[in-house]
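$ ./design --mode recover --in tokens.txt
reading tokens...
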């Protein structure tokens, strides 16, 4: 048995070498330079060893592999930046070589002369599936944990290690494009149906089945290396392809509005590659991959959606020196809309929950939400009946506060009313020990003010969930003036336990996410009042990369909730806190037309009974004199919607609300879907350059109002040629703290 750092290789009596990938210091296997060097060496050793007849490649962990390691990607970008400053031509060549390293290594596996079989035991993503595709056989375990995907497009790049060449040579072109341009996951069965894996077997049989393929005489030659190979469906010059290819760029444009260069590159790689010999196809892919790696979109998306998201998820903002909390019980007070969902996600993470409401009946109603979700999951085969019962048994509904006495954290989600919250804080503190942390899920009340009702303000913190809690991956953790390190650590441990990504922000009205969201909605109000047709506003938002138009989003949030928040802002901050025209628009919708949003099926949209689709309320156009479509510049609408949000994000940094640019970026994408191709609000500014952003703001301010005026911080950064990631370098801070 030869041993490597990340692999073990054991050759059995039949001459089959079992290569098991099990990185010693990681919970999931990922590709590093070292891992690739070791695979390279394993190929050489197994080829040289006459006793080895073939190789089975598998993982020693519960998953197969998550793909590339973020430190490798980070080092590739810093190498590029350094080299770019010295000599752009060398930088391009070095990036080209680095971009091709994995691709040509997998090609070496494919052409090594001995059969390789990939035994896929769990999640198999990105480069790991591309390695599997280069193996001559692929066997996957019949298990829910097997998720196969080439998800690179989601971080602005594309499968650049042979994926764009091998998938369409195994599956039909339409399925191949669908899989790669969406980055969606396949089950083992679906991968088999598409022709991407050869066999699906019971987990216990996986290695035997893989070995059996070799014993049965699996050829060590890829289909495309055989004479007479034909692409499934016949390739590019067929009647079927003539139907697919002219439509493909149009479909992609409909889905992504041309904002994702990585997705378009997939189409180019497949279209060109299928007309070329395999090795030339790989070279075409390598060239496009290099080109895409140099785009602002790829850089920003990888940074925010891959690197920063993982770093925040792993507790980048967690104070050091406080032991990790193992939650044996969590309290949720208020079993309404939010509390019921918070209880569900907590129980789904295996943590017992005490769910408190004013009466037993109300608490049980909250639990009923989980019962419904569990029944749905069981019905869809995503959960067994036993798993469902176990989950539900973790939730104890009760009106009795005393049941909270041994919870390590209590999350409050009662009515958004200061007096009600005060009473609840006092009632909870009367029963919990000194060590328990109290978290409020308030969305509008500043935490510092609420904490004044607490006897231990250092143990008090905000944990702001987003609806629907089951789906939304973000949780905003809000530090009141007196919130202590332990409160922060426990809150972050909780967010990690329920598998959400946290951002930590300082206290302010609306915190970070809602401040940005209201700017987005307010800009749409301005546009409506100017007479821009509502459909143009909604479409411009989608073309700018927003998942949901601002009017549709306002309907989801509820128009009367906006009204309530606007009124509260005026009451607390004075009449200038809200534009009178905005207040008039919302008052008219709610008070005159009873249009409260999705919840009463009437808002900016009409919501007819299903299966009919929602449509914009036709009477909207009677509220303000309408402009003709030809009088409206859609590119300016797009800019206004993104710039107003990004400016608000910059203000939160200037005010010290958000202190880490990673959090502004990740929070904006996970919280409200801010045009992901930009990498988030601050990356959007950095990506175009602060100087250009300031110039754009000044231009918009001249035509659309002073809310677009660039702030002093932005002007200062523009003058100094700074970026947010440079001036507020999150890694420098780590260094200072250490
Ligand atoms: P909700 O009205 O659906 O639920 C509130 C629940 O609190 C009710 O079940 C009520 O019976 C219970 N309650 C009231 N007083 C209580 C008391 N003294 N003891 C125990 N239970 C009591 O409201 P919601 O939408 O779930 O909002 C709850 C909190 O979450 C609010 O602070 C809100 O701002 C915040 N929030 C809401 C959303 C959202 O989208 N609805 C999003 C984020 C945060």
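writing sequence...
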């Amino acid at each position: 048995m030869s041993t490597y750092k990340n692999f073990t290789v054991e050759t059995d009596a039949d001459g089959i070498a079992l290569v098991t990938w099990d990185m010693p210091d990681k919970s999931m296997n990922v590709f590093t330079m070292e891992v690739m060097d070791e695979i390279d060496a394993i190929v050489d050793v197994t080829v040289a060893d006459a006793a080895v007849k073939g190789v089975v490649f598998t993982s020693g962990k519960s998953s197969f592999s998550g793909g590339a390691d973020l430190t490798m990607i980070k080092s590739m970008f810093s190498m590029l930046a350094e080299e770019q400053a010295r000599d752009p031509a060398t930088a391009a060549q070095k990036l080209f070589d680095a971009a091709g390293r994995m691709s040509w290594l997998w090609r070496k596996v494919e052409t090594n002369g001995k059969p390789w079989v990939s035994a896929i035991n769990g999640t198999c993503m990105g480069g790991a599936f591309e390695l599997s595709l280069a193996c001559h056989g692929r066997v996957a375990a019949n298990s829910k944990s097997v998720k196969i995907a080439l998800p690179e497009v989601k971080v602005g790049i594309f499968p650049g290690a042979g994926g764009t060449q091998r998938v369409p040579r195994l599956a039909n072109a339409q399925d191949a494009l669908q899989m790669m341009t969406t980055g969606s996951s396949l089950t083992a069965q679906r991968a088999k149906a598409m022709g991407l894996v050869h066999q699906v077997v019971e987990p216990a049989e996986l290695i035997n089945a893989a070995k059996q393929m070799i014993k049965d005489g699996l050829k060590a030659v890829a289909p495309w290396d055989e004479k007479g190979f034909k692409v499934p469906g016949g390739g590019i010059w067929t009647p079927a392809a003539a139907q697919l290819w002219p439509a493909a760029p149009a479909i992609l444009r409909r889905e992504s509005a041309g904002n994702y260069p990585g997705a378009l590159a997939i189409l180019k790689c497949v279209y060109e590659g299928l007309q070329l010999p395999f090795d030339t196809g790989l070279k075409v892919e390598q060239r496009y991959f290099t080109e895409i790696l140099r785009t602002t979109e790829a850089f920003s998306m990888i940074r925010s959606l891959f690197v920063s998201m993982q770093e925040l998820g792993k507790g980048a903002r967690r104070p050091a020196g406080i032991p990790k909390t193992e939650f044996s019980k969590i309290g949720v007070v208020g079993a309404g809309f939010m509390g019921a969902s918070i209880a569900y996600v907590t129980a789904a993470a295996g943590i017992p929950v005490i769910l408190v409401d004013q009466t037993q009946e109300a608490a049980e109603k909250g639990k009923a939400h989980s019962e419904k979700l569990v029944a749905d999951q069981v019905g869809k085969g995503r959960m067994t009946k036993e798993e469902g019962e176990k989950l539900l048994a973790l939730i104890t509904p009760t009106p009795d506060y005393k049941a909270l006495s041994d919870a390590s954290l209590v999350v409050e989600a009662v009515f958004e009313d200061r007096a009600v919250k005060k009473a609840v804080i006092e009632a909870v503190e009367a029963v919990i020990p000194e060590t328990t942390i109290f978290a409020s899920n308030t969305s509008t009340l500043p935490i510092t003010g609420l904490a004044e009702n607490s006897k231990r303000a250092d143990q008090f913190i905000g944990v702001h969930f987003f609806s629907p809690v089951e789906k939304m991956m973000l949780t905003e953790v809000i530090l009141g003036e007196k919130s202590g390190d332990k409160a922060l650590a426990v809150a972050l441990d909780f967010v990690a336990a329920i598998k959400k990504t946290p951002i930590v922000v300082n206290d302010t009205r609306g915190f970070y996410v809602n401040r940005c969201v209201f700017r987005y909605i307010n800009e749409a109000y301005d546009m409506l009042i100017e007479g821009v047709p509502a459909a143009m506003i909604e479409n411009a938002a989608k073309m700018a990369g927003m998942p949901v138009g601002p009017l549709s989003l306002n309907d989801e949030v509820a128009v009367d909730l906006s009204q309530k928040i606007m009124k509260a802002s005026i009451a607390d901050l004075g009449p200038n806190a809200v534009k009178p025209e905005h207040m008039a628009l919302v008052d008219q919708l709610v008070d005159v037309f009873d249009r409260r949003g999705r919840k009463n099926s009437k808002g900016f949209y009409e919501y007819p009974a299903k299966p009919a689709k929602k449509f914009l309320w036709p009477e909207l156009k009677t509220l303000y004199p309408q402009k003709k479509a030809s009088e409206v510049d859609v590119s300016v609408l797009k800019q206004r919607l993104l710039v107003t949000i990004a400016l608000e994000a910059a203000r939160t940094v200037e005010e010290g609300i958000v202190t880490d640019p990673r959090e502004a970026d990740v929070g904006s994408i996970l919280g409200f879907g801010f045009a992901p191709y930009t990498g988030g609000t601050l990356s959007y500014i950095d990506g175009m350059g602060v100087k250009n952003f300031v110039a754009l703001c000044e231009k918009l301010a001249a035509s659309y109002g002073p809310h677009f005026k660039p702030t002093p911080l932005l002007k200062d950064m523009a003058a100094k040629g700074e970026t947010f990631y440079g001036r507020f370098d999150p890694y420098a801070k780590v260094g200072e703290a250490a």
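exit 0
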